[in-house]
Amino acid sequence: MRMTSRTRGLACALILGCAASMPSRANFTCSGPISYMGLSYNGSINVSVGFGIWGICNLNSPLASGGIGIEPSTCRGWYASILASKKAGEQITLYFTSNANTANGAECSALGSWVVPNPLPYFLEVP
After folding, report:
1. Coil, strand, or helix at residue 91?
2. Structure confidence by residue, pLDDT tens digits, 14-47
3. Which residues contact 111 (CB under 8 A, 6 or more apart)?
4. 29 in Cβ contact with 104 (< 8 Å)
């Protein structure tokens, strides 16, 4: 069956209309050199990229906040990556879910300090 250009145009319009009506979820990122990194007695990895010190995961048990859960196996990978980046003097980027779409904006400072951020980061980017 051959599609006419009119049929093709209507199909494209329908697909684009459906895609445009879907709710979108943006995110925000917090980036910077690692200004603080610590490991607490219970296995919590605490890190700062300049906006506060956040407990981002735990080496011994799952950690969940704001609908995001980080397993210990993921935490071990993040820990190794953060250690390597700190030693190399490189910056990292943490990605958080939000309706915002900013980088290093007010959302980063609003997470607080010496807290488990809500939500937890869902992605860690290293160079």
Report:
1. strand
2. 333 433 333 344 699 999 999 999 999 999 999 9
3. 30, 51, 52, 54, 96, 117, 118
4. yes
